[in-house]
Amino acid sequence: SYNRVYGAYATVGGGYTNSAYGSYAVVAGGDSNVAYAPWSTSVGGDDNYVAGYAAVVVGGQYNFLYSSYSAVGGGQYHYLYSYAASVGGGYKNRVYGNYATVGGGSANTAEGQYAVTVGGSSSVAEGAYSTSVGGDDNYAGGDVAVVVGGEDNYAGGYAAVIGGGQYVGVYGSWSSAMGGRNNYMYYPYAVIGGGSYNYVY
Q1: What's the CA angle centered on 107, arms 105 and 113, to 5 degrees?
Q2: Pairing relation of β-strands 139-140 and 124-125?
Q3: Which residues pair with 155 in a beta bridge?
Q4: pTM
Q5: How does pLDDT run across 75-107, given as a tens digit for each residue?
Q6: CB atoms near residue 2 (< 10 Å)
Q7: What's 27's DSSP letter?
Q8: Taking phi first (over 0 means left), then psi (-120 to 50 degrees means alpha), and beta for anything else, what does residue 186 get?
Q9: Spatial separation of the C-alpha atoms in residues 41 and 49, rounded to whole Å
Q10: Which of 54, 119, 109 is nearest to 79 (CA)?
């Protein structure tokens, strides 16, 4: 089986070429997984690397957890760098914000503290408490900003909201755009309900 145990009170429970380096670390099955930090855990999967204290990866492949209390629930090529970060699956997702979450999809990023990205692809939740749900290439840049679906949308204002559409930009605080195309808002507390090429200055 070629499993290795280096840490005090660490355990490797089956699998092949797995390694437990940290004290009290656990690797339960899978292939070529490493539980490097104290109290870290790897369950199944292949080529996962758990370097955060008390971090956990369950299945998947080529996932890398560098932060304490972080978790990955499957998928491939995820990278977690921040405290208590989590990824629920998908492909090539990244988490940089403390307590931030990516709940699936591909190539999504949660950068802000408590930021959430759920599904879709190539979307970013940068602001603190910001959210991106579905869609492609969307960006929730403002704190508490929300983008739900659509493509190439940017919610840059505080508590800005975009409900779908394409090439929609909301830069004013507390402003919202409900879809449409090529709509842009720079004024606070403004609303665009759809359509195309609307501008609020």
Answers
A1: 90
A2: parallel
A3: 140, 170
A4: 0.94
A5: 999 999 999 999 999 999 999 999 999 999 999
A6: 9
A7: E
A8: alpha
A9: 10
A10: 109
